[in-house]
Amino acid sequence: MAAAAAAAVGGPQAPQPELPAPGLALDKAATAAHLKAALSRPDNRAGAEELQALLERVLSAERPLAAAADSEEAAAAGGGGGPGAAEEEALEWCKCLLAGGGGYEEFCAAVRAYDPAALCGLVWTANFVAYRCRTCGISPCMSLCAECFHQGDHTGHDFNMFRSQAGGACDCGDSNVMRESGFCRRHQIKSSSNIPCVPKDLLMMSEFVLPRFIFCLIQYLREGYSEPADVPSEKDLNKVLQLLEPQISFLEDLTKMGGAMRSVLTQVLTNQQNYKDLTSGLGENACAKKSHEKYLIALKSSGLTYPEDKLVYGIQEPSAGTSTLAVQGFAGATGTLGQLDSSDEEDQDGSQGLGKRKRVKLSSSTKDQSIMDVLKHKSFLEELLFWTIKYEFPQKMVTFLLNMLPDQEYKVAFTKTFVQHYAFIMKTLKKSHESDTMSNRIVHISVQLFSNEELARQVTEECQLLDIMVTVLLYMMESCLIKSELQDEENSLHVVVNCGEALLKNNTYWPLVSDFINILSHQSVAKRFLEDHGLLVTWMNFVSFFQGMNLNKRELNEHVEFESQTYYAAFAAELEACAQPMWGLLSHCKVRETQEYTRNVVRYCLEALQDWFDAINFVDEPAPNQVTFHLPLHRYYAMFLSKAVKCQELDLDSVLPDQEMLMKLMIHPLQIQASLAEIHSNMWVRNGLQIKGQAMTYVQSHFCNSMIDPDIYLLQVCASRLDPDYFISSVFERFKVVDLLTMASQHQNTVLDAEHERSMLEGALTFLVILLSLRLHLGMSDDEILRAEMVAQLCMNDRTHSSLLDLIPENPNPKSGIIPGSYSFESVLSAVADFKAPVFEPGGSMQQGMYTPKAEVWDQEFDPVMVILRTVYRRDVQSAMDRYTAFLKQSGKFPGNPWPPYKKRTPLHPSYKGLMRLLHCKTLHIVLFTLLYKILMDHQNLSEHVLCMVLYLIELGLENSADEESDEEASLCGPERCHDSWFPGSNLVSNMRHFINYVRVRVPETAPEVKRESPASTSSDSLGSLQNSGTAQVFSLVAERRKKFQEIINRSSSEANQVVRPKTSSKWSAPGSAPQLTTAILEIKESILSLLIKLHHKLSGKQNSYYPPWLDDIEILIQPEIPKYNHGDGITAVERILLKAALQSRMNKRIIEEICRKVTPPVPPKKITAAEKKTLDKEERRQKARERQQKLLAEFASRQKSFMETAMDVDSPENDIPMEITTAEPQVSEAVYDCVICGQSGPSSEDRPTGLVVLLQASSVLGQCRDNIEPKTLPITEEEQIYPWDTCAAVHDVRLSLLQRYFKDSSCLLAISIGWEGGVYVQTCGHTLHIDCHKSYMESLRNDQVLQGFSVDKGEFTCPLCRQFANSVLPCYPGSNVENNLWQRPSNRSIQDLIKEVEELQGQPGAFPVSIISETNLSKEMESVMKDIKNTTQKKYRDYSKTPGSPDNDFLFMYSVARTNLELELIHRGGNLCSGGASTAGKRSCLNQLFHVLALHMRLYSIDSEYSPWRKLTQLEEMNSQLGNEEQQPEVPILYHDVTSLLLVQILMMPQPLRKDHFTCIVKVLFTLLYTQALAALSVKCSEEDRAAWKHTGVLKKNTCDAEKSYKILLSFVISELSKGKLYHEEGTQECAMVSPISWSPESMEKYLQDFCLPFLRITSLLQHHLFGEDLPSCQEEEEFSVLSSCLGLLPTFYQTDHPFISASCLEWPVPALSIISQWCSEINAFTERHAEQGKALLIQESRWKLPHLLQLPENYNTIFQYYHRKTCSVCTKVPKDPAVCLVCGTFVCLKGLCCKQQSYCECVLHSQNCGAGTGIFLLINASVIIIIRGHRFCLWGSVYLDAHGEEDRDLRRGKPLYICKERYKVLEQQWISHTFDHINKRWGPHYNGL
């Protein structure tokens, strides 16, 4: 095809003969230059035609699909095969033509020069890291790219970093969105002034070429979109898009050329003439025609009409998948929504998952046709957007369209186009399979357009933006409506959204809603909305779709079979679609001038509510057992009322409806409050967990101020305007506790089970308390609210800063002013709370920085009411009370068990004064009286909580009483009602003293009251007042409420007769089975005051406990100092109430005094009832059980004691036995071990060995030591890199390979230790167990399937006693301490004798008490543990021999294990032994046992007999033997041996247990070698002159008496011996520079020698401590050498320390010093004959390693993040999705990256094996957390970076600046060095090599 295209272009039919055949770039350039010249002429028609023809040909090649045959296969083949080359060609042509003959790159550069870069406009896609600064932002959506952010100055601002979810664009330079102070350096300069004008000819070609190019793109899009019957599959669309990738990228590159090119593109895209000419499809070109037809088909199939089409409006077939089901008789109900479609087709797509609920479709007659269905494209831009939507917003297209936004003209045009397509976007979104991705892309675009107020205003005015948005939202929701079942199921006309639909479940609506919220945040737009009555009506219609959705019906019989989880969709929908737009509107109603808006909203809201009540057929009773938490209309109404009173000074009554409406309004919110109590009383348990979830979500911090707060406020408003008696009785009736409120001791409740009564009564009283004391909307200022919210949250628990921000319900609209993190938040926080810095317990969990309430907050501000309102979990209320109690105890304010404190409230706003009438209504007083009486008489176990609430309500009433007792008479003139006979008036103060003598009650016949007297005359319904005025009668709350309702209705509506239906509610007819009720009259003779005083006696448990305080101190009444806040319990509460009552009225005072004078009769002693007897029995049984438990516990405690002692470092004999030294008398005491499994004690024997619980792990910590003290820092630039050549492991590696190059392999493996990397470290918790017990324990673990966290198959387990992680058992060697005694007697034999003995002992291989040949259990175990030790580390860390698998390898490995453990212990002690003593490491050390196991195995191997290092050290040889073996490699010279390794070899080759004098002998001999090595190394370090001088001085003193103990003589001898070889010769001049010319003084030389020898002395002392149990002396650092050498027996005891200590005095030569030294030196000379360089390198051993450290981290996390999160991986050269960096060596790795996987190991796991022998510590860059890999498990360790409030920010969700926490990092390093990750971190999981 490409060939064809080329022919077509260059063929004979070309009109201009001079057009060269294309092919070479040169020709293209020439053609382009020629055309440019032609076009620059004044008459350029010819040039233009020529260009058109050329483009026509070049670009037609770009459409292979059109040229291909019609059938799809051919198209697919064409699409897949040919186009590549042709498209490349076409793009090349375009580039050439644009550049007009020049080079394309130069052209780009030239255009960029004219870029007025005022805006950044960088567009990014999802997952990009951007910044948001609230201090600089005007719009809440403002965002900056990292570069602009760091270039600007944001110090001290409230900013955060975030990962973009939907994509975005940088706003730097755009003053509409952000303040100019925040612009970065590049965008601060104002544009256009200094930028020269663009020369005309530069962009001339572009103006001609680009229209053709874009048209080409559009044709391609038309071609590619096939509209089959079903929705085109994702794959087809993606294929087309892939083919278009280069073209769109080309356009994108053009936009990046800057302003000049963007304006050309804008012209092209918006020019209508161009579009018309090219796309009309009217020409003779067949292709173009076909393309136009495709376009029309696409429009049509999208359910859109093209105006010129012959389609008649309205006869439009419904688009696929929305066939409708009509509901007849709907017309009247929906008012504005008009008639219904009368089509009766069945519903096809609504049926799945909806059960029997049919979907409802509203009529389309009112459809705004122009908004929904008509699209006419007039420019390229419009059609491009159309296809972008059709193809579901491909990322590339979106980026191109957004990249153009910095061009102002384009921005306006594009916004208008976007709005024009809004309905179409909604339709596509609903159909899309990938609605999530699509939503993100839509918002990516819309947020850029609508955040700009100026633009939003313009579009609102010119394009009806608001109408379009509201209509589109309404339409969207219409597709998923169902009939509401609330209230009247059959006849309901109300429709609600169905929360089970995908539209709601997947939040598909959120892009449109978020756009709407976004534009409402602009004042100018919101005002238009609030003024437009039509819009408000439509909007209220929309909101009413959510009113009453997700209805819950209480399951009464069996548990619901399927728990629907739709509730979260419902809550999210109400919050996002209703509440957030509401908050947006409210934020513009802040001042008086906006009163009109509020009136509008309230008016249409009430209309909608009235329609709703009519539609659901509501009269006065809510349907039982139903609740919906969704009443958005009520909440709109409530919030606008609140705003009107608070900010706009509107008169509340002017916006309130009549009484009847108020009564209806209060029903549903009240129903919710009652249902909350029912749910918490477990009455809804059969509905499953989800109903609890709803109750919790309703009060949860993100929802509460859009849900429960408006509901309670609305109820407060209703209560303040309705008759108080009516309101109170409604409350108790809704809470179903009416029947409980009787004086009788028994009652029947027809609607409630007995077990729910108490909690429902508590619920009702708590609700009343909240209703009466909450002031959130009744007069509190914003700051007071914030403070109250914060105190409530802090009282429940200490909180971190971020959780506080999350828990404080902020006004959800971000522009509202209470922005979290704003100054008021911080200032209130610092006023009420103290900061507790994060604490670190080294073994414990990582604490975060917490805020805790200040003492004065507990003292004065703790408000239980607010806490109850805000708790999601009931346990939080308890937690707050416990904390309060603890505070009072601690501060000594109240010792006992306090009650929730009573707190004075902020004064009520005058509009709500009526609320307090609730406290002064007879109904409430009767309830309070009844409850007090019942509590006093101990009826129905009423709780203390009830009493607490009753007293709270009484106290509230006294605080808010009317002035004086004036209104007593007033109430009498009304019609007499049944409760008038209870109390004379309605004022609580006077009613308190009113005595009530008799009460008539209805009781079951079985009740005790009946027996006394049963007046037959009174029939059950006689309400007539009895003659005796003191007798009250049956009080029915319900009857009261009905009466009231009737009265109000009669007053308010003339047609009351139609409204009030005699509705017989089922609950009043008692079920037949119940016993008959009869009436009894009780004698009461109490008043509220007398009840209170008796209660006081009852609570205090003493007679006459109450004594009026004013009798002693009359002052109390004159100057009442009632504190604002009172701590105490029920007794103090009663006293407080009585005092307040006395204060308010003289009568009360007198009556209180009178009551106190009457001596109350003593309470009779209690008879023990059956129930109490039962409890006593229970007590006894409990006591016995307790004693049994005590015994068991004591037994276990003794075991645990031993564990605690080992853990706590208390000297405990049991664990020290293996290391204990017994004194003089040789009693036989074998080491005794306790088995923690079977609990028996006994020695470890051959047949039943005991073992220590150990954890074996490979470790490379030693290998990380370096020789400088400063730890390396983590690289944060390309220059800083870490090279591991100076680590201990690397240095040892180099040394071993050097030795292996020149010397015999077997001797090399004795001359050095391995295990610096991958050495095996053995640690124990100190507990022992029988090995057979352990085996059965492992079996039981294997069968237990539940265990996680460790793998039993790998031998892992936890210690049965202390639960420490372990993976092997180390057998204890059976031996009695007697042997030890014999071995430890100091002997006076000469060193020569001892040397002989040592040599003989080493020669006997089987000299073990246990012969290896006999297979005992013990030897088997020793072998198996040795296997475990070998398998702990990888093969590469074991095999260093040149002949793989040679026994020398095992030999080397075994003594290196001993070395590794000694070296690590030294590091745990801080690198030296100055501290002395047995550290915890020593206490729990298992080195003794380990040595036995290793020694046993070492003896299986023998050292080369002719090469015994011991002989070389202690005997002089004949010289001739050296010359014989020239042909094979020589042995390693003894001076190149590592002395510590030699020590371990010598000791492990001896029979165990070792004798002390043999040990000392070996140490003495090795010290002579070590000292000689030190001298040799020193001599190499000296300069030539120094050497000569020393040689000379030594010769002079050679024959003095202590020659062998003077380092000067020895040094000079070493120098003279080594001078014989070539060691000192080969120094060229370049070498001199390397050796530093230090002038060596005698002191510095002595220090050098001591430092050289110290590491050996330390290891030897540790070894002696473990083998013989001798304590280590502590000392100063400078005297460490002398103390250790005397401890090891190197120093003669008579040595005096007056003159300076000389290390040489420790020498004791077994043979004449000079002769053996010369023998050693001759070996070296023989080697340096050939290799002087290496000879010298091997002599200087670096032995002074500093402690290992992790890398140092920078102070601020951002420095790490910015460098690493974009860094490419060195292995796969991609930027990893989850980058991580190793904190040990700084390597950058891909976490979980499949790209770097090798043999099924991901990179982190692989690195942890290579770098840490299975332990890896990685910092996850994108999460700021540290992850630990240990073998096959991993765990999240936590973060070492905390924010300013001491909190982690895992996953950088909050994006606040993070700073290093040095303490945490120290803890991490400590755990790494001490190998305790396994013990301290608890949450381990397997990683399956996938990290």
Descriptive account of the structure:
The relative contact order is 0.04. The two termini are 49 Å apart. The longest helix is centred in the middle third of the chain and has 39 residues. Helix 1 runs antiparallel to helix 3. With 1891 residues, the chain is an alpha+beta fold. It has a 6-stranded antiparallel sheet with strand order 26-25-27-28-29-32.
Give the tally of β-strands: 32
Shape: flat
Strand content: 5-15%
> What is the straight-line distance between the termini?
49 Å
Q: Write out the strand line-up for the largest beta sheet, numbering strands in chain order.
A: 26-25-27-28-29-32
Q: Stretches where pLDDT falls below 50 for ≥5 residues?
A: 1-25, 61-83, 308-357, 363-367, 813-818, 964-978, 1011-1031, 1052-1074, 1161-1169, 1206-1228, 1376-1383, 1406-1413, ...
Q: Round the Cα radius of gyration to an integer and report it.
A: 46 Å
Overall mean pLDDT: 78
- Helical content class: 40-55%
Largest sheet: 6 strands, antiparallel
Number of helices: 76
Structural class: alpha+beta
